[in-house]
Fold each of these.
Amino acid sequence: MIKYLLKRAALTLPTFIALMFVTFLMIRLVPGDPIEVRRGERGITPERLAELRHTMGLDQPVWKQFLDYVWALLHGDFGTSIVSKTPVATEFFTLFPATVELTLCAIIFAIIIAVPAGVIAASKRGSAYDQLMMGVALVGYSMPLFWWGLMLILLMSNTLHLTPVSGRIDVIAYYYPSVTGFLLIDSLLSDQKGAFLDVVRHLILPTIVLGTIPLGAIARMTRSSMLEVLEEDYVRTARAKGLSIFRVVGFHALRNALIPVVTMIGVQLTTLLAGAVLTETIFSWPGIGNWLIHSIERRDYPALQGGIMLIASLVIILNLSMDFIYGLINPRIRHGR
Amino acid sequence: MRKTTRFVTALLLGTMLSAGAASAKSLVYCSEGSPENFTPAMNTTGTSLDAARPVYNKLVQFAPGTTNVVPALAEKIDVADGGKTITFHLRKGVKFHSGVNGFTPTRDLTAEDVIWSFARQSDKNHPYAKVSGGAFDYFNDMGMPDLLDSIKKGADDLTVVMTLKEPNAPILANLAMDFASIQSAEYADFLMKKGTPEQFDQMPVGTGSFQFVNYQKDSVIRYKAFDGWAGKPKVDDLIYAITPDATARYAKMKANECQVMVAPNPADLEAMGKDGDIKLLQQAGLNVGYLSMNAMKPPFDKVEVRQAINMAIDKAAILKEVYQGAGQPAKNPLPPTIWSYDDTTVDYTYDPVKAKEMLAKAGVTSLDTDLWWMPVQRPYNPNAKRMAEMMQSDLEKVGIHAKLVSYEWGEYRKRLQAGEHQMGLLGWTGDNGDPDNFLFLLSCKADGTPAGQNIAKWCNKDFDAKLLEARKITDQAARSKIYAEMQAIFKKEAPWMTIAHSTVFEPVRKEVSGYKVSPLGAHEFQDVDITQ
C-alpha cells in the first residue's frame, strides 16, 4: 500500500511542476502589467515606471523571476500580493473557508435532490415522471448561472422577500469575530441569538445556484447507472425472491449504482471549489473565485500564481486521497491489475 | 421520515421568515470592491480612497458636494512670499481615534503628525517609506517632489510651515485631495516598536468622523461614529458591504440591505428613477470625454484637418445614442462645473460638406487612418466601441477610412501615451476641481516635447506659457482670464474633439437624508442621516 501511495504521489510531481511553469508563463502572456493597469488615464513617466518595476522585481529577466518564484515556493512562500501587500497564503486561507462552506452546501443540496430523483426516474423508465425529471436535469445542467442567480434574487428576495439578496450574514444585526472562517460554525460559537439561522438564510440562494449544475449531472448519472444495474441478474433474482421494490431498488441496486455516481461527485466537488466564480460574484460571496477574478483584473501576479498553485495543491491532495480510498476499497486498483 | 420532513420544513420556514434583530442607527453603503489598504497616500482607486476617507482628515477639504476648498484640520491658512510660503494653523484639541489595534493616543494632533504624513511620501529614508510597498503615486503625480521645498514646524506645536520652490496656485486644491490625509505619527511609532509597521496601513487611526472597527476582505468594512473635532456623525455605525456586481447592488438597495450604492448599472437608471423607495441623485460630472488627434502624425499636424474632423462627426447623435441623455455636449476641455469655464466658446457645428471642403483644401481627399477605442467603460464614456463605430461611419462620409483599434486597457493607455495612434478616444475625471487639473493634460515639457498624459502630442508654446503663468498667480479672477485665453487657443487649434461631460448618478434609499453627490466621485457620510 505504501509503495502504491508513493507511486501515486510521485506521479503528481510532474503535474505540479508543469502547472507551476504553465501558470507562470500564461499569466505573463496576458497583455498589460500590474503597474500599467493601475494607472488609468493619468499615465506614467518612463522613469517612474522603471522605478516601480524595479521595486516589484518586474525588471528582472523572466527566467530569473521564475527561479525566484520556484525557490520561494520550495520554502513554502507563495508570495505577497502586489495590490494588498499581504502574503498570498494569508489572503487565500482567509477567503477559502467561504468557498468551502458554499461548495459543501451546494454539493449536499445537489446529492439530496439528484440521487432520489435519478433513482425514481430509472425505476419508472419512460414514464412522464422520467421524462420530466431528465428534462429538468438537462435544463439545470445547461442553465446560465448568472441569469439563474439574478432570477432567483428577483423572485425570492425582491418579490417574495423570503431570502436576503447577497452576502454571508446580516451585517447590521450580527457582528462577531471570525474563529474558523466557516460562518455556520462561527455563528454557533458566538453568543448572538439568531445568527446561525441568518447564516442559513444567506446560504439558501447561492447553494441552489451553485448546486444546480452538479444536481443535473448527478441526477443523469444516477439514472443511467441505475438503469444498467436494474438489468443485472442479481436484481432480477431479488425481485423473483419477492423482495419489495423499495428493498430491491434502494438496497441491492442503488449500492452498486452509486460507484460511478460517487466518482462524479468527487469530480464535481473539485470543479466547484475552483469554479464558483459566477455564483460568488452574483451573491457577493467573499470566496477565492471572486478574489482570483480581481487578481486577474489587477494583474496581481503573485496572488494569481499563488492562488492557482494553492488550489491545484488542494485538488491534487484530494485526488490522491481518492486514489488512496479506491486502493483501500479495491485491491485490484492497488495492485495495478 | 415524516418527522424528519417536518423538521426540515420547519427549519427552512423559520430561517426564511426570521429577520435579524435591529441595532443602533446604521447606514450600509454597497461598495464595489475591497480596498488595497487604508492609507490614502498609497492608493489611486476610488474604491480604496472611499474606504479610508471616513477615518481621515486633511489640512483643507472639499466642502461636501462641491469642489470648494474649505478649512479642515487647519483652521487658518496664511499665504506669504508671493505664494511660496504657506502657514497652516492647526485646530487645538483634535483627537485621534482610540482603541484601534490596541493603540491609545496620549496626545492630540500636532505639527509632528502633519510633517510625518508628508515626510513618509517625500523622504526615501523615512522609516515608513518602504512599508507596504511605498508607492506614493498621487504625491508624485501632482508634482509634489518638484514643488515642495520643505515642511517644518512653525512657532508652536500647532503651526506648520510649508515652503514651495515656486508659487503654485493649485496647491491648496491639491492638499484637499486624499493623498494629503493626516495620519498619526504616534501610532506609527507604536507599531514600529511593536514590530508590526505594516498594520499601519491595514488598521487605520485618524481624526475622521468614523473610527475603523473591522475589515473582512471582499466582505465588509465596519466603522463606528467618532465624536471628534467635526462633531459626531448622525449615524452610529457605518458599514461598507462589498458587492462587486452592480445588479446585485441594486437588488440589495431594493431589499433595503444597503441604503447608498456606488456605480449603478446605466441600464438600471430608468427603473431606479421610477422606484418609489429610491432617490436617484445626479450631478454634472467633473469629467470630459474626447477624441484626440495625434498632431505629430500627418495629416493631423494640420490644424485644418483637426478642425474638419471636429465638423465631420455628429456629436448630438453620439450624445443621444451613447450617453442616452446622461451627458451634455462638451465644447471646452473643462467641464462647466469648474470655475473659469468659458461659456462664450463657440463649438464646431456638424457640417460634413464643409468638413470635406476643408479636408480637400488641406490636400486630404481620401485618408486611411486608425481610430482607437477604450476596451472599458469609464465615467466619461459609457460605450467607447459604439462611439467609435458612429465616428467611423461619419468619417467615411468625408472620405476618411478609419480602422477601429483596441487593446487591453493598460496596454491601450500605454500605447496612446507612446503616440502609436492617429486618433484615439480617452477622457479625464478631475481630481480637485482646479482648471489646471484639466488643462495640464495638453501641456508639454520645457524642451517642447509632449508630456506623457498629452496623447494629442500637440504642443503650443503660448498655451504652455499661460499654464505656467496661471500657476504662479493666486488671484482667481486673474487666473480665470488666462484660462479663458487657453480655452480659446485650444478651440482654434482643435487637438481634441471634445465630446461630452457625463452625468453622475447616485441612488440612495428614500430613508436617507443629507447625502450629497460629490463631483469628484467621492462618497462621504459625515452629514448623512437615516430614518429607521
Note: The longest helix of chain A spans residues 88-123.
Amino acid sequence: MMSDAKADISYIEADAADATPAPLTPGQVLRMRARGHRGLQIGMAILLALLLIALFAPLLAPHDPFAQTLSARMLPPVWSEGGRWEYPFGTDQVGRDYLSRLIYGSRISLLVGFGAATIGMLIGVTLGVLAGFFGGRIDYAVNFVLTAQLALPGLLLAMALVFIIGPSVWVVIGIVGVLHWTYYLVVTRSATMRLREIDFVAAAEAIGASRLQILLREILPNLVPQILVIFTFELGVAILAESALSFLGVGIPPPTPSWGLMIAEGKEVMFFRPWQVVLPGIAIFLLVVAANLAGDGLRDITSPEGRN
Amino acid sequence: MLKYSLKRLSLAVAVAVILSFVTFLLLNFATDPAQAIAGEDAEPEVVEQIRKTYGFDRPFLVRYAEWAGGVLRGDFGESYYWNKPVAEIVMNRTPVTLLLAFMSISVTIIIALPLGIVAAFRPNTAIDRMALGVAVSAQAIPNFWLGLIMIILFAVTWQIFPVSGDSSLSHFVLPSFVLGASSVPAVMRLTRTGMLDVMESDYIRTARAKGYRGFALVRRHALRNAILPVISVLAVQLGHKFAGSVITETIFAINGIGRLALESILGSDIPTVQMLIFLFAIVFVAMNLLADILNAVLDPRLRIA
Amino acid sequence: MLTYMRIAALAAMMPFMIPAEARADKADDTMRVAFGEEILNLDYNNTTKREYIILSDLIDEGLFDYDPETNTYIPSVATGYEYLDPLTIEVKLRDGVIFHDGTGLTAEDVAYTYNWVISEESESAAKGTIERWLDKAVAVDDKTIRFHMLEEYPLAVRDMANRIQIRKAGTYDNDPNAAATSLVGLGPYRVESFEPGKEVVLKAFDGYFAESPKQPVSIGTIVIRSLPDTGTQQAELFSGGIDWMFKVSRDVAESMGAAPNIDHVVSTDLRIGFLVLDAFGHTDPEGPLTNVLVRRAMNHAINRDEIAEFLMGGGAQAVHTACHPAQFGCDQSVAEYDYDPEKAKALLAEAGYPEGFDLELWSYRDKAVAEVVLAKLQAVGINVSLRHGKLASLNEARANRQIQAYFGTWGSGGTPDTAAIARVHFSADTDRNMSNNPKVTDLVLAAEVTGDQEKRKALYSEALSIIADEAYWVPMFSYAQNFLVNSELEFPTYADGLPRLYRANWK
C-alpha cells in the first residue's frame, strides 16, 4: 500500500533510464496513439465518470449523505429481504443512506488523491530538478533526504502524525502528500541530468539565458509527460493511502463519508452485512484501477519504448 | 562496498534517532500514557499513582535523556503496557512476522514469476494482457479490504482456513496471500521486462537458431539472466513485508511486530514505538543494501566494473 | 455485481449454515470466555480495568461483597463489621476460610494487605482510594481487625468490598509485583496456568468456603482467552472455540443471537453516557459554553430517548441526571430538558448566537453515538466538528484544558452510589470538572464524609439540582450490556452489568 511507491522505485528508475526524454511529439501523434490504446481509454472513461459523479453528487444521491434516521438504521439493501427502494443499498449504523454516502465518498477520495499527488509532485519535482540540474552538493543533499525518506516507516509515521495532530481532510492530504514524492524525484532527477547534456540546453546557455530561465523554459516543459504519468500513478497510491488511514481510524474524521472509513464501520458487522465492506472496497478499487490504467496508457503513448 | 554499506546504515540510524526524538516528543504531548494504562474507568487518584510509578511526572527532557542513555547501553527500556523489557517483547514477536514475511514473498514469487515469464514469452497476446490485468488489479486493491474479503469468503463462508490467529501454519495462508499479492505487480512487471530484454539478446537468438524452442529455451537460457534484477527487488520487498505487515497482522490478529506497532501507537506505549521505529528503519535500509550487494554479486557486468 | 450478491446471500445465511456441532465444553465442564483486553497481571490490587474485576471476582475475596440483588454490601470472608467509634471499624473474620495453598486466613493477612497498599513502597492502583481514609489496620487477635481512619468516611465498606483483595501476609515483601504472575487467592477458582496476554486457566477450588455469597459455584474449569479483535471473537463463538463474550455491540449481538446455538443475553449497566461542557470557560473565558442558555439549548437539542432506544437498545434508558438513576442519592426530581430543537434554537438566539457557533466535540468510544450527537447539535445551528480518537489523547487534551466539550462515559466501577461518579467529575482537583462551581464541589465532598444516609442524600440532591439547573452536563443515556453465550450455558445477569462468571452453569 503506502510502501508500494517505494517498492516500485527501482523498477521506475529502470524505466526512466529506458525512456528517452520525450521528443516533442505533435499532439496528433499522441491522439492517434491514444485512440489505439484500450487501457488508456477505459481508465480515462472510469476516471471521468467518477469525476462527474463527484461533481454532480448532490443531483445523483437520493438522500443527504449526512441525514440520519435512527428508526431506519441498519436497513438491508434492496435485493435482500426487508430492503426497500427508498434506500437502494440500505442504511448504515445511524440510518444514513448508504448509496448517497458511497456517491459522496468519491469526492473525498478524489480530493485527497489530487491534493496529495499535487503536494508530492511539488516537492519531488522541485528536489529532482534541482538535484539533476545543479548536481554536486545539492544532488548529494537531495540524495540524503531521499534515503532518509526511504528509511521512514511511512504508514506508521503517517498514523502517528494524524493521530497526534488530529485528523481532518487537509491534514490527511498534507501528510499523504509529504510522504509520497520519491517517485517524482528519482525520475525527474535523471531526466534533468540527461536533458542538461542535450544540445538545446547548451545552446540556451550559450545565448546567455539565466539558470532559472533554462530550468523553467527548457527543462520543465520537457519533463511534463513523465510528471503527468507519475502523477496519475500517485493519484492511485494516495487514494489507497487515505483509505488505509481512514480504515485505521486515523484518517478522514467522521461523519465525512470516506470509503476507507465506511469499510471500517462495516467491519464489525461484516459477517452479517458484507455489502457494507464490499461496496466501498469496489469503489476504491475502480478508482485506483482507473488511475493505474490511465498512468500505464499515458506512459505508453508518451514514450512507447517505455513499456518494453 | 563496505564503506558504502556502513554509510547507508549510519544514515538509517541517524534518521531513526531524529525520528525517535520527534515521536517521543509528539506522543508525550499529545497523549497521556498513564490514562492508557489505567483504562477508561480509572479514578484520578489511580491515574496519578500510575504517573508516579512510571515517572511520567518528571520533565520530558530528563526522560528522553534517560531513554537515550539506555539505548546507548543497548537497553530499550520497559514497555508501559506489558511491563516487560521492550527488547524481549520485540524478540518474541519477530519470528511470527518473519514467517509471515517469508511466506508472503513466496506467494509473490509463485504468482509473479510465472506470469511475468509467460507474458514476456508471448508479448502482446491475450496472455500478456491478462498478466498485465492481474498486475493492474493487484495494485489497485486496498490491502486491508482484500484481507476482510478473504476472511468473509475463505474463513467464514467456506471455512477452509482459520479466521485469525497465528497458532498453526494454516493461519498464515490467507494473510501471506494478502501481503504477497501487494508485491505481485512490481515483481511481475520486472520479470516481464527482464525476460523481454534477454529474449532480444544475441545469445538467445543463437540458442533459437540452434533449435531451442518454448519452455526449454526459457529454462536453459533466458530465466537465469532475466531473474537477476528480480532477486534484488525481492530483497527490497522482503523488507517491506517485514515493516508493512501492520494492517495485515491487525486484521488477521497475528501477534507479530506489525500489530505491536499499531497497538503501541494507539496505546501511547512510547518505548515500544521507539524501538520498532529503529528496527523498521534499519531492516529497511539493510534490505536495500542487500539488494545492491546482490546486484553487484550476481550481475557479471557490474562485477567487472 | 452478481457474484457480490451471491456473497451477500451466502453470508446472510451463514449463521444457519454452520452446523450446530456438539460442543465439547459441556461434556468436559469447561467454559471458555473471551476478553478483548489482554490479561497481563493477575493481581487486582495493582490493576484497574473491568476485565480484571471479572477475573478477580473468580480468584479473589475481599472482606465484603456487593450483592446486586439487594443492592447492599454483605459479608464475604468477614462475618460483619461494627463502628466502635466514627473513626474505628472492627471487622470479624469467618472460620474455615483457606487460601488456595491450603493455609488458613488470619487477621494478620488482612492487616498486612491493607497496610501494604497504603505503604510507601506500594504501587497499588488502590493506594489513592484507600490512603484517603485509612490510617492503619491492626490485627487485634487471630480473627479480628481494627481499621483506624483518618476521617469519617461512609464508603469504607464499599472500598473494602470493591477495591482490596486479601493477600497472604508477606506476599509483597520482596517484590511489589509478586502476585502478578502467580497468585494465591481466596476465591472460588484457583489459577491453574497463566500465559500473560494470552490465556488464564482457572479450576474450581475445592477448599472454597461453603458460606460464601458466591456459592453455589458450579462450573469446573474456566478458560479466559485474550482475543482483542471482536471479529475473531464472533468467529470463535460460531465455531465453538469460545462459549461467552461480552462488550458486544447491539447490532452484532442481535445478528449473532439469531443463530441456533448462540443466545443473546442483555442486561442493564451502571454506565451512563453524557456530554461535559466547558461551563467555566477554561478554553475561552468568554466562550459560548459559559452561557447557561447555550448549555440548556444543547440539552434540548439531544434526543435521549431515540439514542437509548435505537442505538443502545435492551434496557438502556434516557438519563437526565449526572448519575445513574439506580445509584444511591441520584435524585430524579431535578430539572429535565425535553427534546425540543425549536426551543434550543430560540435559546441560542436569546443567548446571542442566532447563527450558532463553532464547537469541537471530543469522543473516544461509541462513534455512532458521537455522530448522532453531532448531527443533533448541528440541526440546531451549532457548527460541530468531531474529534474521535483514543482515550489517552482525549485525557491529555483535557488535562491541558484544551477541550470545549467531550462525550464521556462512566461506569462507576459498578458501585450503585452517586459518590462513585460525583467525586471523580466534580471535586476541585479533577480535570473532568469543567464547570468548577465551588458550591457543587463542597456538596459532593461533604456527602463523602457524612455518615447519615438521609443527610448524604440531601447533599447529593442539592448538588445534582445545581448541575441540572446550570446544565453543566448534557446527561444522555444509560448503557445496556450485551452478552453472547453458548445456548447450553445458563448465564444470569445483574442490574449493574458486571458479569459474574462464577454464577454461570450448564443447562
Note: Chain A touches chain C at residues 66-68, 70-71, 73-74, 77, 79-80, 93-95, 163-164, 166-168, 249, 253-255, 265, 267-275, 278, 282 (CB under 8 Å).
